[in-house]
Amino acid sequence: MQTKTSLLASLPNLGPKSQQVMAKAGISSVEQLRKIGSVAAYVRAKRTGANVSLNLLWALEGTLSGLRWQEVARDHRTSLLLALEDQERRAPPV
């Protein structure tokens, strides 16, 4: 059973559109997001066909790390882009 605090809507950085995209990707709880991580969640969101930008990746990582998405974009951009490249290379095609 999901509690209200386990829902993505309770988290910072994720607005209604981001929450809809994540739901379409099959991610509706904080626990699911933590389990797969921000990069894999972003890849799933992209694979739904949703028009997502890297801002979603920054927001997802910010949600998990407790940072504002702008800080993530500034301070963690390179490491996340490298992890994204690796994840996309390893992920089976749809």
Regions with little confidence, pLDDT below 50 for 5+ residues: 1-5
Report the span from N to C terminus: 31 Å
Arithmetic mean of pLDDT: 87
Query: What amount of the residues lies in strands?
Result: under 5%
Q: Helical stretch count?
A: 5
The total count of strands amounts to 0
CATH topology: DNA polymerase, domain 1
Question: Which structural class do the helices and strands define?
Answer: mainly alpha
- Domains counted in the coordinates: how many? 1
Q: What's the CATH superfamily, by name? A: 5' to 3' exonuclease, C-terminal subdomain
Briefly characterize the structure:
The chain is built from five helices and no strands. With 94 residues, the chain is mainly α.
3D structure, described in words:
Helix 2 packs across helix 5 (77-90) and helix 3 (54-65) packs across helix 4. The chain has a single domain, classed as Orthogonal Bundle (DNA polymerase, domain 1), CATH 1.10.150.20. It is built from five helices and no strands. It is globular and about 30 Å long. The longest helix is centred in the middle third of the chain and has 18 residues, at 30-47. With 94 residues, the protein is mainly α.
Salient structural properties:
DNA polymerase, domain 1; 5 helices; mainly alpha; 94 residues; disordered N terminus
Structural topology:
Layout (H helix, E strand, L loop, with lengths): L15 H9 L5 H18 L6 H12 L3 H7 L1 H14 L4
